[in-house]
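From: lab user (bench 3)
To: helpdesk
Subject: output format question, protein + nicotinamide-adenine-dinucleotide

Hello, I'm new to running complex predictions and I'm not sure whether the block I got back is the full result or only part of it. Here's what I submitted:
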Amino acid sequence: MKSLSTTTLANGKQTEILIADNLKDLSAHLGSYGRSVLWVFDANTATLFKQLPPVNVVLESGESSKNFSSLERILSNAVDEGLARDCRIIGFGGGVVCDMAAFAASVFMRGCKLTLVPTTLLCMVDASVGGKTAIDFKGLKNMVGSFYPAEEVLISMDTLRTLPEKEYLNGLAEVIKHALLSQDEQLYKFLLVKKNEILSRDIETLQTLVTLSLAVKQWYIEQDPTETKGIRQVLNLGHTFGHALESSGHFTFGHGACVAWGTCRALEAGVNMGITDKAYAIGATKLFKSYGYDIDYRIGRGDWIEFRERLSKDKKKEKGQVLFVLMESQGKAVLRPIDMALVQHLVIAKPIF
Amino acid sequence: MKSLSTTTLANGKQTEILIADNLKDLSAHLGSYGRSVLWVFDANTATLFKQLPPVNVVLESGESSKNFSSLERILSNAVDEGLARDCRIIGFGGGVVCDMAAFAASVFMRGCKLTLVPTTLLCMVDASVGGKTAIDFKGLKNMVGSFYPAEEVLISMDTLRTLPEKEYLNGLAEVIKHALLSQDEQLYKFLLVKKNEILSRDIETLQTLVTLSLAVKQWYIEQDPTETKGIRQVLNLGHTFGHALESSGHFTFGHGACVAWGTCRALEAGVNMGITDKAYAIGATKLFKSYGYDIDYRIGRGDWIEFRERLSKDKKKEKGQVLFVLMESQGKAVLRPIDMALVQHLVIAKPIF
Ligand SMILES: NC(=O)c1ccc[n+]([C@@H]2O[C@H](COP(=O)([O-])OP(=O)(O)OC[C@H]3O[C@@H](n4cnc5c(N)ncnc54)[C@H](O)[C@@H]3O)[C@@H](O)[C@H]2O)c1
Ligand SMILES: NC(=O)c1ccc[n+]([C@@H]2O[C@H](COP(=O)([O-])OP(=O)(O)OC[C@H]3O[C@@H](n4cnc5c(N)ncnc54)[C@H](O)[C@@H]3O)[C@@H](O)[C@H]2O)c1
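Helpdesk reply: Thanks, we reran it on our side. This is the complete output you should expect:
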């Protein structure tokens, strides 16, 4: 087990990020906490252990578990086990499990200890760090939740071995997004050079990949822990276009593929508006394509009305206008509205590069 | 409307406490917030307005409303009204309404604006200030909640006119408790001198009473906003004995009467243990009696086992031992375990002073 870094977040709370050599190393570390511990899994991540820890909650896997009934289940187990305020909740899984475990920890006796063990690439580089917790409510994503950074995030690369390819690519899209947002070119170059090792999930390569990607997220969230300064929002690069595509449901690829597609649309928009360096946009688009994302996809003309409808529901709004994250160049992002005629052109017309 | 004081709490968040001349003054202030507002009442406090504000939730009155279903009702209304993250939830009522409104505000979109309008004396001097929010869960009080200080607390003394006597005495017990915990004797002396005006709820007298009492709570919570330093716990003076009595259910008086009784038991214990100044304990006991609390009440021998059982469930524990708040003298409190034989003697035997 080695300590990777520490992030200081809202409230002066610190999250320590630890890298375990393997699952055994990780269990040993967590075993030392003794009895006042409640584990949260989902049906898939529960199978990663030969023997489940004694006090556990296993949620159904998938987004539909992010609701009040899962929250009450976790809390109810904590009460039944007689856990006190100094107990620890351990979330072991992807973003769904970690969001649920963290929300429960934030309200159990007004806040107990929290360890997150992310087991998807997306959760390692994104969901487990930053303190956002949430459940979906009345069909709306992440509508109810809290800011509650984990005390520690334990990452064991070997958990990624069993991750389905589609889930792996979900995470990888966020990694590439982080590469664009980074203040230096290290991650970007690593992605260019190490493509084969990354796609074959070489453990050592993964460690570097996760480390570099996490550093980018940390850089943004430390400056704006509760997303009130417009800095942290930049991490939503690609998500405005991406969510509209994802929620319109005509595109059968995963969340990551939508984010990749959305990021490239934002790059094109920026070029069109004279904001984004064209050579940079072309290079970044090529990088996404090299990892197999369907960047050239366009929606049908008949789907435009619905797409626009979904877009208008985005939360990043100012005076009723949706704000998009646009890139100027490496690491330099700005928030801007985009003319709807341009949006329509970008999502329907043939690619310009 | 005049500003009384500002308390700085967890996260650097500030609560401004405002005193309104009357309900009309208060409505005018809140009216200026426009449309992005959701009001929370209970069945009794909803009747204090001639016309209810347009967007509101009316909970059943009483402790049984502090649950997940009330929470979901408030959040569901917020979603249905299309409220955004910069909306405001206004809790208008006693501790139940204010705890519910505050918990909902703390999790709606990970935190929206919050105004509390306490309409019971207890809520004015205690529940509305300090940032604790909670619901009861699986029969356990305040098991689930958050720390989320209101941005503003608006107090209008005229709301107290309709408050039932029993509820008024609930609050008054906390006021007298604050008088003992205060760093100066102003509130204590005010209670001695102004008894008639206080009991007849003279509006000007109430303003001074609430102002002095609030200042004591503020003094303690500012030093220990999230109750992690053992300072804020001192505000539980009288509550360990009091809760055990209240929850054993043999005593039909209210929460405040139990706190008054419990505070006097803690004073006696302190005298017995050589911790509390005897003259001080006698004076304070007399003060409680002068306000009509049944301080001489003792439990029957047959009820001791149950009382002890309830006591052992108290949350203020260290190494399995229940800790009691004991007074040394005016404003000086300590946390100590008490020998069970002494506890038994104090709650069963005839009063010693
Ligand atoms: N809190 C945040 O800051 C934040 C950031 C980004 C995303 N999120 C949230 O994260 C969620 C998405 O996270 P996710 O993509 O990890 O989804 P997920 O948790 O649903 O995991 C995806 C799938 O992979 C399975 N799985 C997880 N680990 C596995 C492993 N090691 N081997 C085999 N299968 C495994 C899961 O059971 C699930 O079926 C969303 O709800 C999103 O809102 C939160
Ligand atoms: N958050 C905190 O720090 C904190 C501190 C102390 C107590 N509390 C909580 O507060 C609650 C108790 O508060 P409470 O004593 O105000 O109880 P409450 O809110 O139930 O009010 C008591 C009764 O008075 C009625 N009422 C309220 N205002 C009225 C008015 N102006 N006129 C007529 N009737 C009125 C209510 O409808 C209710 O029936 C408990 O749940 C307790 O846990 C919280």
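A quick orientation on your result: Chain B has two domains: 2-162, 165-348. Let us know if anything else is unclear.
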